Amino acid sequence: MFCFLKRNKLDTWLRIHLCIDVIVVVGISFLCGLGSVYAIETDAAAGTVKTSVSFPYAAQAQMAENLAKHAALQKQEVIAARESGDTEEADVLYNSAFDYYYDRITLMRANGMDWGDIAHAVGLHPLVLDSGHS
C-alpha cells in the first residue's frame, strides 16, 4: 500500500512536471513567433525576385502602417504638392512614399529592429509611436 501511494505521487509529480515543460516550450515557441513571416516570389520571365514580409499580429501591421503614414506625410515632395493645392499629384506622391516607407519598415522589423530604432531610421521621433493608435 505504501509503495502504491508513493508511485501515484511520483506519477502525479511527473505529469505536472511534463505539463509545465509543455507550457514552457509552447510559450517559448509563441514568443519566437512574434517576428515577421517572409514570403519570396520569383518571376523567371521578368527576372525579378520579390520578398514580402507580413506581420503575424494586426497590431504590428498597424504600427508599421502608422509609421509609414507619418514618414510619407513628412516627405518634402508630398508637403509641396499639398501646399500647391494639386491633390491628385499629392495623392500619387503620398501613395508612392507610403509604399516605400512601409516596405522599408517591414523589412527593418523583420530584421529585428525595435519600433523606436525604426522610427529614427525613417526620420521620425519615437513619440510618434504613442500617437500611432488612431
**Main β-sheet description:** 2 strands, antiparallel
Mean pLDDT: 74
Given as residue ranges, the uncertain stretches (5+ residues, pLDDT < 50) are 1-5, 25-40
Strand order of the largest sheet: 1-2
Radius of gyration: 24 Å
Instruction: Note the run of SSEs as H and E.
Output: HEEHHHH
Tally of helical segments: 5
Strand content: 5-15%
- Secondary structural class: mainly alpha
Number of strands: 2
Task: State the helicity in percent bands.
Answer: 55-70%
Distance between the termini: 66 Å
Global shape: elongated
Helices and strands in order, then pairings?
Elements: H1 2-32, E1 37-43, E2 48-54, H2 58-73, H3 76-84, H4 87-110, H5 115-121
Antiparallel strand pairs: 1-2
Question: What does this entry look like structurally?
Answer:
With 134 residues, the chain is mainly alpha-helical. The protein has a domain at 58-133. It is 65% helix and 10% strand. It has five helices and two strands. It has helices at residues 2-32, 58-73, 76-84, 87-110, 115-121, and strands spanning 37-43, 48-54. A two-stranded antiparallel ribbon has the order 1-2. α3 (76-84) packs antiparallel against α4 (87-110). The longest helix has 31 residues, at 2-32. It is elongated.
